[in-house]
Fold:
Amino acid sequence: MERKIVFTPTADRQLTALENTPSRAAVLAQVLKALEYLEIDPSHPGLHTHEFLSLSGAHGEKVFEAYAQNNTPCAYRIFWHYGPDEVMDKKRTPVITVVAITSHP
Structure:
């Protein structure tokens, strides 16, 4: 299924900060790989996706947490929700909105 990944301004800033920090190149590679998996299959086993109950989207959407890293101190996580889908010329494209890309406390 063709999906589109969009980023909130916060997630976009967080991804840009990773891209602009050479010492975080390995983390960036893991985050980008996780984003690829997310685009292809949000329930990919490597993502360990689960609902994150402490957050909700701007319009009440369920927010999910996906792992970019695991078994690592301050492991990076991607927080996301479904939608809003894009409709153009009667064609619907499912959208995943990335809310945040951050290290786990």
Remarks:
- Strands lie at 4-7, 50-56, 62-67, 76-82, 86-88, 91-93, 95-103.
- The chain has one domain: 4-103.
- The longest strand covers residues 95-103.
